[in-house]
Structure formats: structure tokens, C-alpha cells
Amino acid sequence: MQCKRFWFDYQPVGDNAATSFWRQYWQLSQKVAPALNMKKPISKPAGAGFIPFKASSLPPGVELIHKLPHGNVDLQFHGKGQQLDQLRQQFGSFADEDMSFETASKSGCIRLRVPPLDTTQAFSSQVENSLLGIITATRLLGLYEKGSKQDLG
């Protein structure tokens, strides 16, 4: 009997440009914002453009993600896409004017816009915008830490 191959057998092929970009981004993140706890990247496929941060204060179901090609840094709450009013109630008093409450698929998120980044291009030409993304992620982490201490209940 022959076994069929399923989608979960997929092994992404590493791309040198993307892997190099991610590693340099990680080095910058470690230098300026180690609390974001970006994991050291291994080989990355072309098009890998969502960088997750694993800050210890974020519980399961809450993610902090720099969505490079979209120009967003999102504090994302799984399954809360229909509960933006609840997120506004909890975090709105701590949010800055440039922070928006939006849906991202089925998730709710607090979003900040940043310049898009392209992992096919040299990191050296995108250092300033990469730094802006990292600093923006620290702002959203700070917002989460303030708002999560608030008792709504």
C-alpha cells in the first residue's frame, strides 16, 4: 500500500536573501529591544514576511507581529475579530492616536502603520525602517502590558 503525501509534508525551501534579512533584523532586535524576544531565525523561505515576537508577557492567543510586506505591526488577539469594542474598552485609554483597532481575519488587532519592508532587498538599505518596526512593536507591547493590568470586571 502506497502512502499519499499530504500538505503537512511540505518542507519550505530556504532562500538566502530572506534568511539573511531575517537574521540581520533579529540581530537589530536583540540589540535595541531584547524584551520583544524575537527567536533566532533559521532558514527562511522566500516570501516569509511576518516576524513574530515572543515577549514573555504575552499569553497564548495574543501575538505581536511585524507584517513586513503590509507595513503593519499588529498586537493580535485570536478570535476577537468580532469583539473590537471589548478591545477598545480594555486598551483604548492607553492607546495613542495613531493606533487603530481592526480585524485581521478572525482576530482583532491593535495596529500601527510602518513602512513596508522587502526581504528580497538588502537589509542595509532598510535598517532605518526595520528599526522603526522594532520600536513600534515595543510601543504595542507596552500598551498590552498597561491594558492587561486593567480589571474590567
Q: How many runs of DSSP E, i.e. beta strands? A: 5
How helix-rich are the residues, as a percent range?
A: 25-40%
Q: Give average pLDDT, whole number.
A: 92
Number of helices: 3
Sequence of strands across the biggest β-sheet: 1-2-3-5-4
Major sheet, described briefly? 5 strands, antiparallel
Shape: globular
Uncertain parts: none
What does this structure look like?
The protein is an alpha+beta fold and 153 residues long. The protein has a domain at 49-153. Helix content is 30%, strand content 18%. The chain contains three helices and five strands, in the order H-E-E-E-H-E-E-H. It has helices at residues 16-32, 84-91, 127-147, and strands at residues 50-53, 62-67, 72-77, 100-104, 107-113. It has a five-stranded antiparallel sheet, covered by helices on one side. A hairpin with an 8-residue loop joins strand 1 (50-53) and strand 2. Helix 1 crosses helix 3. The relative contact order is 0.19. The model has no long low-confidence stretch (mean pLDDT 92).
